[in-house]
Amino acid sequence: MNIQQEAHQMKLVSPLMANTSNELRNQALTAIRKALVDHQTEIFAANQLDLSRAKEDGISDAVYKRLKFDDGKLSAVTEGIDQLISLADPIGRVRLHRMLDDDLEMKQITCPIGVIGVIFEARPDALIQISTLCIKSGNCAILKGGKETRETNRVLFSLIAQAAVAAGLPDGCLLQVTQHNEIDELLSCDKDVDLLIPRGSNAFVQYIMNNTKIPVMGHADGICHIYVDAAADFAKALPILVDAKTQYTAACNAVETILVHRSIAPDFLPKLADAFQAANVRIRGTKEVFDLLPGSYPQEDIMQEEDFHTEYLDLIASVKIVDSVEEAVDHINRFGSHHTDAILTEDDAAANYFLSMVDSAGVYRNISTRFADGFRYGFGAEVGISTSKLHARGPVGLEGLVTYKYQICGDGNIVADYAQGRRNFHFRDL
Amino acid sequence: MNIQQEAHQMKLVSPLMANTSNELRNQALTAIRKALVDHQTEIFAANQLDLSRAKEDGISDAVYKRLKFDDGKLSAVTEGIDQLISLADPIGRVRLHRMLDDDLEMKQITCPIGVIGVIFEARPDALIQISTLCIKSGNCAILKGGKETRETNRVLFSLIAQAAVAAGLPDGCLLQVTQHNEIDELLSCDKDVDLLIPRGSNAFVQYIMNNTKIPVMGHADGICHIYVDAAADFAKALPILVDAKTQYTAACNAVETILVHRSIAPDFLPKLADAFQAANVRIRGTKEVFDLLPGSYPQEDIMQEEDFHTEYLDLIASVKIVDSVEEAVDHINRFGSHHTDAILTEDDAAANYFLSMVDSAGVYRNISTRFADGFRYGFGAEVGISTSKLHARGPVGLEGLVTYKYQICGDGNIVADYAQGRRNFHFRDL
């Protein structure tokens, strides 16, 4: 079968998957956990194959760390599965229960989205997190992982799919896609795939968004800002800025642009320059930023207005001076990507203005932007971070993987009776 | 200013609109209600111009009724505004309040979507409903109504926008687009418009969906089904089927396909044919349907499998015999448009199977599909009906016009401390 046929088949399986009990889905998760632990030697061996090929290809240390699947990562994912099992059933929840009339009962009930396609980077733990999140939320899933971990993915997927079906989940509820050219085939399955979640580079996510009619959840840019207010506590600000830039520089929630209030700039900017120098971070900024710093700076680091759209994903930060919290908010709403932005301040009024007016999925006070993550929000795990305003925003866990339907039971009710005034609605929430 | 500049301007106004109080938004709604009542003579006069031009163009009675704005419609919309005023504030609601650690407090707070473009059919009451829903939910709105009511729309919009701004809402929170060629310009505003809601013909909605990067909420097809089960009560079934087909034939929630259980078909189908003949409804169906009906039928009314994708929006219905509730569900999930589908049965097991397994925004038992409507669900009004599974499904009222943001306040927290085990998360829901 080709991907289109497989996706069509999965669409027919999805109502069965949607109607499995939480007990059965938890049993499947328990079986998956056991299979991963029991077969760890096999998984690690497959991972070694991926790692040695990657080494031959000369990958960086950072990428090597992501590809590697070891004891530590296994215990992290089994802990994640335990968390998922302990979470309440996200489906079948009655979000609204209303009598429309004496004999007309309406329920708004949560249900799975259906068939979800996830295309993700080369990280073996991602495959486990995504498939178990989809199972817990009653969704069928088509998974395509990065080719650099293909051996590990092959073993992991086969263990997970077999354990899930052996535990009683419907045959065909999970599918792995392994060939890069199959991505385009997946993008054409808009009749059968309900949602795509692409993770990866900006260019890759943009490609997906531009080449499919399937709704896409996720984000392309992650241009996060930190605004250092006039009332910032420098002792908090400097470690936060270093953390937000360096703790995981390639992450979408790393800070890219730092806005500094003019009144503190002469005092603060030299301290920031020292802290960033110690952390190997290069500063780019407007001319007035460099005027406040000692030494000379290369001409190419002097920024113009339009340069503030840049996402570096590197040890580089844009710095700009602003006159007020209002100007900071305007800059962020214009140049940001509506991902995660923070204010550093001890002034409640400035903080409240910023938190209310910044139009982003995450608005923070006095913390690092790196906290934007499903695990850190207590969601157990995440399938991605959404900068869309529709459906799910921010880190997407179980809640973002369900939708709802309206179920109404009556006794022969017809609209003509209500339209012509023979009967009237009597709304009453239960 | 052209539409792009106007939309960009509106984007900058949207955070101000998002932060207006419920009290102020209700004051604006009260002022709008008053302006509509005070200026009714002016509105009715403008409507007369539209109506006479429409008559010259030779429109049908049904369309004439939709274009007409009279005393009855005015009191319906003012009643709708009163309902909206009485509804709780949809924004600023804390949906999740969680301590991530002792000094790290997270809130998931509802907020408006931002800038919404609504393109709607020639119905003056639609303009009022949509603009007041957007105001109550703190959204800025760009409105484009059908050209057949342009005089009425011009007067209505000017009364509404003036009353809203005079009451204190931000200048520029509402915009009217009047030229058809401006629709394409609106479709290109993906940087500034957060959501498009097109209403109208299948072809028109498809055109919008295919020609913009802005998320689109709504539906193209409305292929609704009613399944008459073996355990159906005929006394309920016949009036429901007539209502669902004829009460408003051109509506998206009118029934298109009727599935009848084989065991009752010989008894039920002749009764259905009589009821439909009395209501002027033409039956199309599979050959075995006609074999159970008296008289002869034109060859063109005999349907093949692929014909069941048809949405008639006319006094025509597709009829098919199925062997079981399972077959009915399979047919609906394959040929339906995931809008609204009903089962008619006195058998709880069949009903529960149907309600669980049919993958549609509305799943009904023993009532007409015509109930799929925001007013009938007690939402006050609706901006449209969504067949998307993301964000909002079914009739979209206030709830579908808000999103949320995550707000986290800390005290200098950095991720490195948590990643390296110096600190641990202590999740605690408040």
Account of the protein in words:
The structure is a homodimer of 430-residue chains. Chain A has 15 helices and 16 strands. Chain A has helices spanning 3-18, 22-38, 40-56, 61-67, 71-86, 124-136, 150-166, 182-187, 202-210, 234-246, 265-278, 287-291, 325-335, 348-357, 415-419, and strands at 94-101, 104-112, 115-119, 140-144, 174-176, 195-198, 224-228, 255-261, 282-285, 316-322, 340-344, 362-367, 384-386, 394-396, 402-413, 428-429. In chain A, 41% of the residues lie in helices and 20% in strands. The first copy, chain A, is globular. In chain A, helix 10 (234-246) links the parallel strand 7 (224-228) and strand 8. In chain A, helix 10 crosses helix 11 and helix 13 (325-335) packs parallel to helix 14 (348-357). Chain A folds into 2 domains: 3-218 and 388-406, Aldehyde Dehydrogenase, Chain A, domain 1 (3-Layer(aba) Sandwich), CATH 3.40.605.10; 224-371, Aldehyde Dehydrogenase, Chain A, domain 2 (3-Layer(aba) Sandwich). In chain A, the strands form 4 sheets. Chain A has a 6-stranded parallel sheet, with helices on both faces. In chain A, strands 15-2-1-16 form a 4-stranded antiparallel sheet, with no helix packed on it. A 4-stranded parallel sheet of chain A has the order 5-4-3-6. Chain A starts with a helix and ends with a strand. With 430 residues, the first copy, chain A, is an alpha/beta fold. The interface between A and B is large, with 77 and 77 residues.
